Amino acid sequence: MSVLVPLGGDLPEESRALAEALRRLFDGLGISVRRYAARRHRDPGSLSRFLNGTRIPPWEFVHDLIRDVAEEQGRAPTPEAIELLRRLHRTALACGGSALNRVQALEDELADADRQSMRSAALVRALEGALADAQHRAADLELQIRQLHGHQDRSAAERDKTLRLYEDQVTALLRERQDLMEQVEALGEDLKDAHARRVRAERRCEELERQLVAAEEHGEGENPPVADAALRDAPPTDAPPTDAAAKDAVPRGPVAEDTEARHGLDPRFVFGTFVVGDTNRFAHGAARAVAEAPATLYNPLFVYGTSAIGKTHLLCAIGHQARRARPGTRVRYVTAEALADEYRGAGRGAGLDAFRRRCLEPDLILVDDIQYLPDLGGLHEEFRHLFDELHGAHKQIVVSSDRPPKQLTHLGDRLRARLESGLITHVRPPEQAVRVTLLRRKAEQEGITAPPETLDYIASHVERNVRELEGALVRVRAFAALNRQPMDVQLAAVVLRDLVPDRGPSREEEAARRIIELTGDYFGVTAADLRGKERGRALVTARQMAMYLCRELTDLSPPRIGQLFGGRDQSAVDYADRKLRAMMAERRSIYNQMTELTARIKAVGGPRPDGWV
């Protein structure tokens, strides 16, 4: 069954209400059930049963449908509409009766209980602060009373006149003190009640977790989840193209002249100008091997490392060497962002066919900064198909990123598996000897005269990447020229001491701070709580979610992320990343929370919203 039929009269009211809401939402797409099922890689029969009310869908299906309708209509749904669908979904799950439905309902209850627990903890802290303020105020009033009584040693005539004024003030202060003491008692009662609610909420969370485990064990023998069944029933899409298809994929006409503008290679970046050291020796050797014999040894070649340490240099050097070794080799260098812009401008029909021809035409394709490849209009799926056709036609693929493939979760499991199928090389920040060589070469190019000890000093204090290293040299030279001083070690020490304080927070750091604030708002706690040392169970989970999102949605290094969370070390960030991945795979409630929180962060915006998952 893959069509919509009138809702039967024997449907429960809860299932009928959910199905009617999903049908109204689905009408906004303006396409058939089969076309939507093919677009989302779902089983058409299962999708029809969701819309006909005969099966309750998982929340992931409802969330995907909301997002697709929003993209189709060009406007985001209101929070009220999303909350209405969530209530209908929960009501249908509660009345469904199957073990799978009970598991989903319990996971939703557990997520609500987590939020309630953190709100109770926040209320406790607020009441404790109010109590402390009231106690300090009462102590101040007592001090004022003692000071007023100290004035009684004045002359009798003046004392009788002044005493009445002081007594009135004392009476007013005593009355105010009494009111404050009553407020303190009331706050104490509220504090006890808040503590009790917090204890009950934590006990409720523990009980729900026990029920969830029992329900999952009971439901293991029942029907598999709908998403798994849909994937199992769907026709295979990962089969490599046949030889005939690979030949037909790229028209074999006269080869156009491979001009500088066409292949996109930077003429400065060749192997002769690449400085080899212990931190990049393996990546350099792999790049040399690929350039000499494309598509024979390592295909694809995946190069990753932090920003400005030579990844783009290696990619362009591969292209130059391949064209030099085999004249006529068609090479194309493109960044992920440029590829996305080209795909966005291609549209459909003939424009999309031309985009595919441009991607399939070269013998060697170099894709830089794959972490910025957004999933706009199915670009990830399109790139995966292009990857398969290029690989099947024995064409070399080289990709670079700022992180290994396993951390590029927003690209999807299928595309990540293809990126992991070849050789993965890591380029680390250059060591001291390489940094000195880079500085000496930069000084020769710019005509800078600097003593060797000055270059050694700069290289020992700027370690992260080549861009900052060269910028430090230029800054030292400018400072020396403006002040008419020699470029000695003392001058370099003065300039480099001022270099770090002059740097304001980067866009990535600002984005991380927004992620922390939005995560705190979502769970009802403050950003200071997420950075603090308190280790309540619900607060620890929220803190780990914020760390995971900072690592996924920004380019900050794990040590820098740890510093933003109260000076924690890199091991805490790595543990949060592993813990959240495991929890999302095991608990549907955590997956739903991460989905909603990521959507809120994307709605606010960031340094690279297209690259966010």
Explained architecture:
By secondary structure, the chain is mainly alpha-helical. The chain contains 26 helices and five strands. Strands 2-3-4-1-5 form a five-stranded parallel β-sheet, with helices on both faces. Helix 15 (379-392) links the parallel strand 3 and strand 4. Helix 1 runs antiparallel to helix 5, helix 6 crosses helix 26 and helix 25 (570-586) crosses helix 26. The relative contact order is 0.07. Mean pLDDT is 79; it is low at 220-261, 500-504 and 606-613.
Distance between the terminal alpha carbons, to the nearest Å? 33 Å
Stretches with pLDDT under 50, minimum 5 residues: 220-261, 500-504, 606-613
Estimated radius of gyration: 32 Å
Q: Strand portion, in percent?
A: under 5%
Number of helices: 26
Category by helix and strand content: mainly alpha
> What global shape is seen?
flat
Tell me about the biggest sheet? 5 strands, parallel
Counting DSSP E segments of at least 2 residues, the number of strands comes to: 5
Helix share bin: 55-70%
Please tell me the overall pLDDT: 79
**Strand order of the biggest β-sheet:** 2-3-4-1-5
Write a short abstract of this structure.
The protein has 26 helices and five strands. With 613 residues, it is mainly alpha-helical. Strand 3, helix 15 and strand 4 form a beta-alpha-beta unit.
List keywords for this structure.
mainly alpha, 5-stranded parallel beta sheet
Topology diagram in text:
Elements: H1 13-27, H2 33-40, H3 44-52, H4 59-73, H5 79-94, H6 99-149, H7 156-218, H8 226-233, H9 243-249, H10 260-263, H11 281-292, E1 301-304, H12 311-325, E2 331-335, H13 336-346, H14 350-360, E3 364-368, H15 379-392, E4 396-401, H16 413-419, E5 423-426, H17 432-446, H18 452-461, H19 466-483, H20 489-499, H21 507-523, H22 527-531, H23 537-553, H24 558-564, H25 570-586, H26 588-604
Parallel strand pairs: 1-4, 1-5, 2-3, 3-4
